[in-house]
Structures
1.
Amino acid sequence: MRSNKNTDSFINSIKGRMLVLLIFVVIVGSVLVGRIFYLQIVNGEEALMDFTLKIQKERTIEAARGKILDRNGKVLAYNELAYNVTIEDIYESSKDKNKQINDTLLRVIDVIEDNGDSAISDFNIILNSDGEFEFTVSDTKLKRFLADIYGRKDISSLKYEEETSSAQDVIDYMCGYSKFGIGEYTDPDNPRDSFVKGKGYTRKQILQLVTIRYAMSLNSYQKYIPTVIASDVNERTVATILENSQDLLGINIAEESIRKYSDSRYFAQIMGYTGKISEDELQSLNNMEINDYNIRTTKARNDYALNDMVGKSGIENTMETYLAGTKGKETVYVNNLGKVIETKKTVMPIAGNDVYLTIDKDLQIATYNILEQYLAGVLVSKIQNIKEYKPTETTKASNYIIPITDVLFQLFNNNIISISHLSSEEAGDNEQAINAAIVQKREAVLARIEEELNSRKTPYKDLPDEYKIYETFITTMLSENGVTKDSVIDKEDETYLAWKVDETISLCDYLKYAISMNWIEVNKIDIKTSYSDSDEVYAQLVQYIIEHLGNSTAFTKKMLKSMIVNDNITYRQICMVLLEQDAISIIEDEKNKFTEGRITPYEFIQYLIKNLYITPGQLALDPYSASCVITNTEGEVLALVSYPSYDNNRLANSIDAQYYASLQSDLSKPLWNYATQQKTAPGSTYKMVSATAALEEGIVSTTDTISCKGYFDRFVDAQYKCWIYPGSHGSINVSGGIENSCNSFFYEVGYQLSILDDKYNESFGLNRLNKYAYMYGLNEKSGIEIEESEPECSDEYPVLSAIGQGTNNFTTVGLARYVTAVANSGTVYNLSLLDKVTDSNGNEIVDYSPSVKNTVELPTAYWNAIHKGMRAVVQKKAYYNDLGINVAGKTGTAQESKNRTNHALFVSYAPYENPEIVVCTRIAFGYTSEYAANVTRDIYKYYYKLEDEDDILTGTAEVPEAAITNAD
């Protein structure tokens, strides 16, 4: 096109307009997507030129998080460079924008999964084993999640329908046309009204898209901030993404630092993990005031942003401001498509500081393994080849046994065997056989339940035990699903009591009454029209129950217990399924022994447990959990072990929601720190507190005696027995009271402490007893720098409280602080996990040492009497003979439930002559304190190198040596 007068006029006119346009682009260019064209004259020719935007942006450079190390410098938490697949929202606004993003994401997810990696699942909803959407959080966390989903500032702003949303409701909302548009419209001319949520997508794809789109939405307010689709991907994924980058708009590969944990299962409860900052955490951290007691830091960052990774729990959380480091800043230039075309670093980040703990890594690992070996040993010694076991009223808890059917049931009940896989296309022969038996059983059970609900109407108390279990499951299911309005049910109503307490009416009668009283949320049972007839509502409710039972894995588990006992499925079939599902990995020779019939299913199960192919934590049969805290006598924590544990690598950076949900549903509660959060009665480990009270309050001197008749009969309406009854200890002094763990001695102490003006005064006695519990720090948390439960000192029954019962409830770490003070003769420390903090170059910033809470001032003779009694306790245990070091300790048992075995405790210190370390061990529902004492002995062997390590850490079950006494 040649220049002419008209053209020149046009060009001159557009030049002015182009200037205005370019100014506009500079002002709002960060939100403009597209290409700008302009005319240019070249050698008299007019050409349409492509103008590429170059927009300047400032962004932060994340600082490397500091390491966490043990007292000897062994690394426990560190950073590792990894490849992440990310997406930036640089899509043009249009009615098809959601579809374009969703299609791109699905293509990327396919690439990721085809190469053996996984997309992020850091969302509080999962697909459960029944294929239904399910929340992974509850209570306040759930409400906070819902508030975020619906864009509410706080929980109180939620509307009723939002607050009561089901997981499916949330998914439907997120799939909506106006939200993420996950679905299809049937009318192109009217996409909004014809949009069908979820259409064209599998439930798995829907959840994946919602998870990523929600994460993208959290970054929507700031342009050019990428959202992670998958983290720590392999090189195959990287290569495939890069090869197809031209067709994957907004998709990039980013090299970023991720958090890693060494030997994670041994330290997860201490370390905690990192994760993406929440709104609440953002506000809290940026508004943080220096709090020397909690974080012991000299600075606060106050520059956190919504994409930051922060410590979520444990030391990662407590020491956040030290570990996080200081961000850097850089200037980047992006083009009109949001691609970075130039980077200019301006301020380099400063790496976080390194935190050293008082923990000894090797001791921590050894203690965990010793606990596991002994738990397995107890199980092996208690499992018998019988179908059912019901202890009598006179059976001692230490003599309870475990029928093999309970073990086989737990393989299903705690998800060692996948029930959903039984009906899959890949199911093996034995899986198919068990599934067929389940289908047949379910048909029969549902038919009977439907008959009960419609015509038979058997009162609950007259039902067979099996069907009592089923009907209890139904009422629980209705409650959990929000079908019954639990908050409005009148718990004093006669009909309610007839069902719940007296058990004299049928479930049919109760549910019909509940409908008449408006205790049923009819909207939850898929009633499509307004029903005025309660019979129609009831019919729909019955249909709802039958349908949900038919699709419920949890209900299938209830049936399986009966099926195993009644031989509907065989022991051999169950064991073969373990092999078909690769649930265990054993050497071929041992596998062949079973498959060829050379050993029985019972022997095979025993073999698996003995060799820890199936662990106590997996079985979740008592005893399956334990804790141990080891301190030095200066209050430093050398080991803090909670069994079972978990892999915090799978929760760090981006939570694996499915794994997190499996941990939450795990019956052994691996997320719980049994050392710091579980509270039980201390049992007789409390008797050093009572001995201190007796001596200081003048109840006895070191030589005075109290006579044990085998029982305590000062109360007309109650008689308390000593554990030795019908025998007795005779006259014993305070050292003998501890040595023999004599309940009668300490009952009398509790009684005498309660005498005021020659009368028994319960409140007076409790106050005097608790005075000494407080002196030992048992009324406060121990001081450790991670999450810990509040202790409970007894507020009733001073006589029982004096032997560690009443309402005393303490954590293992709380007992460790108390016994540390006993061992060092009176210095009560605030225990600490922190040793020091250094910068990334190793320069020390802070040096920690446990602070002294208070001292227990006692005459040397009193301490000698207490220590002498504790030493005598251990001298009576044959398995401590010739140990090579003298140990002092105290056993304790604590009953929590009449249907379960007792908690087993042993607190101790060594060497007796010059104490260096304290070891406190608790086996929850561990039968007898002798088992805890066995564990503790092997810990001393390991610590003081009294036996070859390979002989201590065998990796196989250790059956505890038989108890030589029934003392607690």
2.
Amino acid sequence: MYLNCHSYYSLRYGTMAVETLVEEAARMGIDSLALTDINNSTGMVDFARCCNAQGIHPIAGIEFRNGDTYLYTGIARNGNGFRELNEFLSYHNEAKLPFPATAPPMRDTWFIYRFGQVPDRRLRDNELIGVPPSGLNRILSSPWRDDHSRLVIFHPVVMRHRADHALHLHLRAIDHNIVLGKLKPGMAAGLTDVLLSPDLLRCAYEDFPQIIRNTEHLVADCGISFDFSTVKNKRTYTGSRSDDRILLEKLAMEGMVYRYGKNNAEALRRIRHELQVIDNLGFSSYFLITWDVIRYSLSRGFYHVGRGSGANSIVAYCLRITDVDPIDLDLYFERFINPKRSSPPDFDIDFSWKERDEVLDYIFKRYGRRHTALIGTMSTFRDRSIFRELGKVYGLPKEEIDLLVKHPDDQMNDNHIIQKIYKLGNQLVDFPNLRSIHAGGVLVSEEPITCYTALDMPPKGLPTTQWDMYVAESIGYEKLDILSQRGIGHIKEAAETIRYNRDIDVDVHRVDLFKKDEKVLEHLREGETNGCFYIESPAMRGLLKKLRCSDYKSLVAASSIIRPGVAKSGMMREYIHRFHHPGDFEYLHPVMEAQLSETYGVMVYQEDVIKVCHHFAGLDLADADVLRRAMSGKFRSRKEFDRIADKFFSNCREKGYPDSLTNEVWRQISSFAGYSFSKAHSASFAVESFQSLYLKTWFPLEFQVAVINNFGGYYRTWVYVNEAKRKGGTIHMPCINRSNLHTSISGTDIFLGFVHIQHLESGLTRRVIAERARGGAFAGLEDFISRVPIGHEQLVILLRCDAFRFTGKSKKALLWDAQVILGHTKKQETSGTIFPVQKKEFVLPELEQSEIENTYDEIELLGFPVTMTMFDMLKTSFRGEIMAGEMLPHVGRKKRMLGQLVTTKNVRTVKGEWMQFGTFLDATGEFFDVVNFPNALKRYPYKGTGIYILLGEITEEMGFPSMTVEKMEKMPLQPDPRY
């Protein structure tokens, strides 16, 4: 009888979570329920599971609307009907078309029109008319007064109680982006759209027994069920499981020769063992599909980094999915694939941000759009977004909303409107707001994906599931993550730039050689990592120095212990101490010594969490892995988490552990597990770090140019320009005859690209480069204007950038010439002349142009200076009592230092106060780090970018110096002579 129920996945309309709806229905004794969310089937998988758990018969449906206009509700008779509804919805999402006014023919679907909105044609056999309790009196005056055969009970359910109607109205106002008072009746549900008890609902229709019978017949004819026990990924790659096994074995053996040579007995033993386990668990196709993606990318010359738990596999290493040698790192395949695991290991494949879309395009074309989809994700109402949305609903001005968001405790916020916002806001927390796209998850399905969900078509242009990765996993999908990162882009571009500039071919995949390169290892030890993937941040640079990190394995450990949870728990500091003093600590328990001796008793990797849960607390491997996943936010079942957590503590009590020991181990697990990497994942990052570091060490200028051009490092562009200069490069402003769109290098001369010039139109840049390629270098300003259509404003930008300095004229003289040539017009379309005309030259008096003027132009147009440094622009010649490289001999002394602010990091203390860590460059271009404790920070706060004078004590931790700031002030620059 409940054929029109909405959950909160009817976005900004429904008021109940799926679980709440089902639990309330069970409490009322309802034995069957249809979920019919508006224009989506997001909640259907969770709905079916919850209904099964509560003994309720689940029915799948979708309510179709164009905007606020109700059209019809589709009710699936079975799984095929659910697929029909999903395909109908997906088609209209993809084509961006409104739904038709009447429902399409479908074989396994019923359609229900609202009473009073019946089509002007004869109803098909599968079309019905839904009568709400409020419409029963109108039956007697309708064409259906004598024929009730097509009428069914149709009571919309939007709220649990009438008290939830206020929440519903606020959601509708948010959806329409209007103030609450402007809502019209057709925009929102009525007060009566609440979940009624079966007796009450039957009582309303007791004078119309045929309507009740029709509804019961419909309910009995419909139902939905999902198989949660089987893998839904594409089952085979070749078409048969046996052929998959044979192909995977062939590829693995060929890869073994490439990776290890022909006679490595240990590699052969592990490969054979893994192949057996992979085949027994039916994961061959997953490995082969991943290999197929890698094969395609290699054929296109794309670089990739394979990581994720699948990097534990030697088969993955031999298939070139990853570059992590599991023998070298002693990685155990069974930790992530074992007979207790029903899903395959996950592979995260990183590609360059420039090439990822081509890889995705290949996957969709290779496996078909019906069987391939990106994974969706759900953006929810949280914190500031709630205040902003509700503030608009109440018509608050932006200033008051900003005050509420940024300073919620301000006394100005103490009024009845804000109290209402808080009350409604608490109800809205974690409500779905928008469907979006997962960062990189891709599904390749055996059955059409519409068997399980409708598909959205976001701006990305690829079909996307309406539910998220958690639902995908629960129903038996294992995603393949196709991700993008700029680190890979700069590695590839650096190799190409080296080939162009030095005529040297670098094989960036020879990581085995990079790991042994003494000069590379020296750079690693010294933290010379600016621009290098994952290891360039101030915190990582400091950790490398503190650990005296000098080999691949120590970098693998550093890549994991830098994660936030380790620092928060105090275990990063403890790890560093134990690293330097291996005999100066005690293990918490003998199990810790047995399982974690490699990492001095500190949990460094995800595997360590699993080992401690298994060997210390006696959890089986499956429960230990669920606990790890739950702590990392990759497992949504709170009940399951609570069950395993209770088991952890009860097992520890049975083993006789003191509560203090159990609590400390749990503290370390819980603070670490949420942020930790698997060892294989850390190893994959370390491989990419070594590739970057090798290029930086031996080809520093080409490497920095590549980093600049990929716009994706930890720091802003000017920091990498500074690094190129520090490494011997000569930095040139953009030049009409020498520069390209992106930064380029010739020898040691680095020409900044046009892309860095603010407000320069991209179309003009393309025209300049194309005309230069066609007609050769520009002879001068007049030649340029005659060949390239350009407006006055754009030309002035180029002139102020000194892009015509090859003419030998000053910028001011060229600006005068431009005014004369363009005749003071805003824009002038030009075309090439057949015969050049000799024009009379006029001689202007010399116009002065100072370096400081040029530098202010550069800051305005590029965001950073080139002609002078920021230090050269200071009013003072003082550069500090010591430089960054001189800090260690002065530990314990107060010194004044001068530094250009690079970046800061805010940290809240245990008392709730803010402190900051700052990173600066000294006058020689070297990094140094400072800490600003709360008291000093309140008196001497940061005041934006610029040069600061800092007074403080020089401190040192494990060989890494820094300054504890007592006072600091931003230094004044020479005045801008242009104004």
